[in-house]
Hints:
223 residues; Jelly Rolls; Arc Repressor Mutant, subunit A; 39% helix; disordered C terminus
Amino acid sequence: MFRPELIDQSKLGKYIRHIDKGDALFHAGEMGDSLFIILEGSLRVYDVVRGTEQSLGTLQAGEIVGEKVLVLNAPYRRPCTVRAEVSSVLLEVALRNLKSIQGLMPDFTQRVLAMLSARLDRVWQLTTVLKSLDPRERLARCIVFLAADTRRTKRDPHGLELELSIDELSQLSGLDKPTIASTLHDFVDKKVLLRGEKTYLLPDAHQLLFIAAHDNAIKARAK
């Protein structure tokens, strides 16, 4: 990731963009020739299905969006809509300005490539998640996948605290909401997940996966 506090905005002023909460940075289907580094605030990414925006997740300060333009070295059609979750400050890196920005930020290309590599790793992990046919195991793998994102979790003396959304789990896993709700309740009943008002406490994320995949372990733990 980029470290926004180390980026000298005074030298990059003409490439800085401000975007208000709720405004779109770009829409699905538009052509674009820029990538953006989030310096302040956060962006939410939406898939557009039959005219309806469905959230795919949030990008925080230090992350990038629109990086495909750097891979192609050409304009491309945006596959999703991106909106400011809060008022945000972005560094716009257009193809025509790439060499100038690389001159001002010598580690720019290296950091972008490192982030692309990390995202490919996440895609591979998600592919593994979706290979799981058993709903219990698939849901457990989804939770482990989300728990691996340190921005979403808090350390607790007994494990990891993770905020979960059934809508998000449904989009990620491909499971319907009733199946997810009943499986989560089953996990709670078996003390695999300890439920608070908005969060779930995981005794251990990988232990959850093991328990979900082995019914005997579930029964043994439930006794």
